[in-house]
Amino acid sequence: MVKSREEAPSPRRPFVWLILALAALAILGSVLAVKDRSVLLRWSVFLSTDIGRGRAVFQKKGCIHCHAVNGMGGSIGPDLGEGKPSSVAFLVTAMWNHAPNMWAYMRAERFSYPTLDYEQTAQLVAYLYMASRLDARGDAQRGRLLFAKYRCTQCHSAARTPGPHDTTLTDPQAVRTPAAWAQAMWDSAPAMKKTMQEAGVSWPVLESSDLSDLYAYIRSRLHGSSLPPPMLGNPEKGWQLFQSYGCVDCHGLQGNGPGSPGTWRSLTFLQLGQAMWSNAPAMLAAMKERGMASPRLTGNQMDDVAAFVYTLRYFDPVGSAIVGRSVFEWRGCNRCHGKDAQGSSVAPALRGQGRNYNSISLATALWSHGPKMFERSQQLGIGWPRLQPSDVGDLLAFLNTPREQRRSP
Ligand code: HEC
Ligand code: HEC
Ligand code: HEC
Ligand code: HEC
After folding, report:
1. Of 110, 150, 228, 315, which is most buried by a Cβ count within 10 Å?
2. How far, in Å, from the CA of 47 to the mean position of ligand 1?
3. Domain membership flag for residue 237
4. Phi and psi at residue 342, in whole multiples of 5°?
5. How far apart are CA 295 and CA 377, in angstroms?
6. Distance 174 CA to ligand 2 centre (A)
7. For residue 361, is it within any domain?
8. What is the best residue among 55, 67, 90, 119 to mutate for testing ligand 1's pocket, by most ligand atoms within 8 Å of CB?
9. Domain identity same for 152 and 295
């Protein structure tokens, strides 16, 4: 059939070619659009970014002028690091809720309003999210007592002279960062298990802030009171390691019970290390049973694995469009954008515009349109709508559901 057509070229052929060319263009266009969307999606659901870039945005946009992160930076606004309940939804709503006060401070400080595009917002949120996973400063005094209580002293001298088993803790690299310490403990677990068995010491199961305090104790001995360097983890590398070291074989990503990575993401670096340490005998036994060598982490690999684990929380919160419609009303967004987010004379339509919001694009939109929204809310005598972290998922579901009356014929 194809052949006969070739033999008898129809006069409509150029037209056919034109159609084909247009179709090819359309396909290319949609492939590019899909690719673009998958990039957006990736940014929103998977925090695969170099933390250094987020820190650079934080500095370049002047956030650091007013905010410290873990003690380093300005003090006009609150410290955004350790100890903040961190989730993407929390950061998005915190920035929104505090925006009017921040703007007031910016005016007072003669600070120009920092604009943020999508990628910068993603990097910034990733950075703040990671920063909040840092460990609180441990209690070195308590650490010293624990060091004796857990009989670490039986093998490790707290002084710089060899202990009975000639193993001192004198390597400053091992306490460079919390992750490095967690890694050193994990890597030595097989050797320690053996020596402990021989010495008749039972495996010390660490609790609460134990590892953090032990770290503070050893670190203060080797580094004095200097602050550890900022974290270095790379989530993408961490994911590779999680697979190549076989962690994923025993710890599937979908599970919810103990031993599921989903439950580790709220841990700090040291808490993660502590969980690994306390379960080391069980883990080493399980590995042996499967004929696996126990993985030794080198370089910054513990940072990478931890960084990966933290990204597991980075999925956009799920929500209900029905609840979202109520949230939109409760928070007063409807007063300007309309009940159905269809737009009004004072504010643009948000639904049915072909946009697909995720946490990051919503944060970017709120941040960049915020000053105008604020101005309108003052003109109309409406208070600034305050959002709760739990609103975000529902609002996204609502905004991303097409409006019914816009069904195309
Ligand atoms: C001119 C000073 C100033 C600048 C610049 C500034 N902020 Fe703020 N920020 C503040 C103040 C003041 C508050 C507390 C406002 C309040 O209490 O309502 C705040 C609050 C916040 C909060 C809420 C914190 C919490 O604990 O709830 C976040 C998040 C935040 N800022 C992020 C940022 C980011 C990101 C940038 C850079 C794009 C930035 N800020 C730039 C002054 C500033
Ligand atoms: C029964 C002996 C024994 C006990 C008890 C013991 N360890 Fe160890 N520890 C070892 C051995 C053996 C090594 C491996 C040394 C090596 O590889 O050179 C080690 C290595 C380490 C390392 C890695 C050192 C480095 O520089 O990489 C850390 C950290 C450590 N132990 C901390 C502790 C802590 C904290 C305790 C108490 C909770 C403890 N150990 C209890 C025997 C012990
Ligand atoms: C051969 C199987 C196996 C492999 C491989 C393995 N683990 Fe485990 N892991 C276990 C077992 C068994 C436990 C004990 C907890 C339990 O009952 O599930 C455990 C516990 C843990 C815990 C503490 C769990 C909790 O909820 O308190 C952490 C954290 C952990 N593993 C991290 C890792 C990491 C990171 C890797 C890769 C470097 C890894 N594991 C590789 C079997 C394994
Ligand atoms: C006082 C009126 C007012 C209120 C209340 C208000 N907005 Fe807005 N909103 C505006 C205006 C005006 C704009 C357009 C600003 C501009 O053009 O820069 C806007 C823009 C937006 C945008 C950006 C649209 C785009 O182009 O992507 C989003 C998203 C948004 N609003 C969401 C909300 C949400 C969610 C709430 C409730 C928490 C809310 N708004 C409450 C007036 C308001």
Report:
1. 228
2. 22
3. yes
4. -85, -5
5. 57
6. 11
7. no
8. 67
9. yes
**pTM confidence score:** 0.69
| Per-residue model confidence as pLDDT tens digits over 307-342 | 888 776 555 677 899 999 999 999 999 999 999 999
Please report where in the chains the tokens 């269809």 appear, as a residue.
342
- 158-174: per-residue pLDDT in tens? 655 555 566 778 888 88
* Type of residue at 250: C
Tokens of 319: 């929500």
- 322-353 in b/e form (b: 16+ CB < 10 A) is ebbbebbeebebbbbbbebbbbeeebebbbbe
Query: Lowest-pLDDT range, 193-202, 287-296, 307-316?
Result: 307-316
Q: Which residues line ligand 1 (CB under 6 A)?
A: 61-63, 65-67, 76-78, 80, 91, 94-95, 98, 101-102, 105-106, 109, 111, 114, 124
- What's the total number of domains in the chain? 2
Q: What token pair was written down for 70?
A: 């873990």
The residue assigned the tokens 């402990």 is 196
Side chain identity, residue 5: R
Termini Cα distance of the chain:
37
- Nearest alpha-carbon partner for 275 in 288, 266, 264, 284: 264
Looking at all shown ligands, the one closest to residue 385's CA atom is: 4
Question: Where is the domain boundary, 279, 311, 343?
Answer: 311
Backbone φ and ψ for 110, nearest 5 degrees, come out as 50, 50
- Judged by its nearest atom, the ligand closest to the C-alpha of residue 193 is 2
d(CA 356, CA 360): 11
| Owning domain of residue 15 | 2-45
Q: Alpha-carbon distance 19 to 14, whole Å?
A: 9
